[in-house]
Amino acid sequence: MVCVDLTCVAIRLTPVWVCLIAYCPNGKRPTPLQALVRVMDYGFSVEAFKRKPIVLLTHMFVHANESHLAGNLTSLMATLLEFGGPSVQRNVEEHNVWVSVRRMVGSFAVFIGGGIMGGIGGQLMFNDAQLACRHKRWMSLLSVKGETNGTPLDAVIRRAKSWLERMKYKIDKKRTDSIFMCGASAGICSLAGFNVSYYKRWGTALTMVAPEVIALVCSLLSSQTRLANTAWLPAGEVVGHAAHVGGFTAGVCIGLAWRWFSRVYRNARQRKQRTKKV
User: Fold this and answer.
1) What is the CATH number of the domain that holds 207?
2) Which of 24, 26, 32, 28 is nearest to 64 (CA)?
3) Where are the transmembrane segments (predicted)?
4) Count of CB atoms within 10 A of residue 205's CB?
5) Do 114 and 60 form a contact (C-beta atoms < 8 A)?
């Protein structure tokens, strides 16, 4: 029979409570418009970061609507209960408050660190790749530099086309840099990645991250026709599949690094103990 200590479970789920407080700061459910305004105030975008660097942290806890919040909190609770301890059941049955606090701090660090590094990094790299693919930026610049033959009129036309391409690229990049991101889902994927690499637990990773990888691959394999038909949209997508995969990758790297550090620390302690015995 599973015996649950509600205090320890509540401590472990602290990131969930923080997200809830961030969504309902006054204790009242916000309207859809208020939630979107809060995303614009505290969500991350390249342009917003230039004005307020604090959005690098605050974007980890904002949500656009209630369905977005509910989905993320469900996944977050699953990854938090999977985080730490010899097994998930032992995590749920944990009665030591100090152990719960330590695991809460550790999960918070992975959630925020992996979400920021992997989530933002992955999404920005994906956006830049889409921009380059959409505008064929590098190929067009090389072709302009390489073509030296032709009449003066041809040279003028080539320069005009190059200028137009650069302007289109800058406008598209400006719009892309203004897209707001909510980083909680990337942080959740980071926790799932940490659970895989450090604890060898694949439960949440298979259900959450595998579909994101498939969606990202499909986005990368999109045809030029599709990109041309959506030229009025900024690069990137409403759902940040690249951010999710990036967060997962960052979590895996953090887990591997922590395993290495733990092994080195454990070996050092063992050598020290053997030296004392001698």
Assistant:
1) 1.20.1540
2) 32
3) 105-126, 178-198, 205-222, 242-261
4) 22
5) no
